[in-house]
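Subject: for your reference before the review

Hello V.,

The reviewers asked for a structural picture of the protein, and I figured it would be easier to keep everything in one thread rather than splitting it across files. Below is the amino acid sequence we used in the manuscript, unchanged from the supplementary table.
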Amino acid sequence: MLRTRIFTAVISLLIFLAVIFVMPPLFLKILITFIILVGAWEWSEFLTYSSKSLRLSFAAVIFSSILIIEYILSDYTIFILQVACIWWLIAFIWLFFFPTSISNAFRMICGALVLLPLYLALIELYKASTEMLLFALVIVWAADMGAYFVGKQYGRIKLAPKISPKKTWEGVFGGFILVSLIAFTWSYYADLNLMVSLPFCFAIGVLSVVGDLTVSMFKRNSGLKDSGNFFPGHGGVLDRIDSISAAAPFFFLGITEIGLL
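And here is what came back from the structure prediction:
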């Protein structure tokens, strides 16, 4: 299982890096759009009656929304990401009240609030700086990896047993340790103010946990363990993008509007 997980992660990373550094920018946009649409297909399984036609319809709505954001609402990027940040703060509070009843309509709205701002944030980060896009992803990956390995080895105290029984506080702290190492290293080589970059990276790490738990909340509410099996050893696309979906909008606004880095 671990070998499959590592192999899938390495291959996925190599493909992603090739798209960023070797291919024209259009290829990254296509890749991100594809990931978001697969995520939409998986999210539609959270609906209480998820027929194939309904799932395709939801994915089509998400794709149409991407086109609208790209070609009609391009001047409202900051506003859309600000709305996304408000949504994630609400989602954080929502976690404390799980389990709750969620209607199909609200599940679809939440899916759009998770997926569409993620698309926009990743594209805008790429436009702003390839390095910053990688920095955001590395922080989230570090939080995930640290939490996985430390939690698996030393995890005892459950973080949110009703939502995600395997996640532990020890794992979260393990993720923060790895995030701090990334922050120290990046700050040194990029000549960043550590007093600013370290708390910022910690905040992004916390948000990645919020994203993970929020998607897990919808999976648990729907009686699902994984969102799919797109990535062998990892689960579905949503299982891979849940953390970055909450972190990316805050990261982009933090570095561009507030000037944290």
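For the response letter, the relevant points are probably these. The mean pLDDT is 89. The radius of gyration is 18 Å.

Happy to draft the paragraph if you're swamped.

O.
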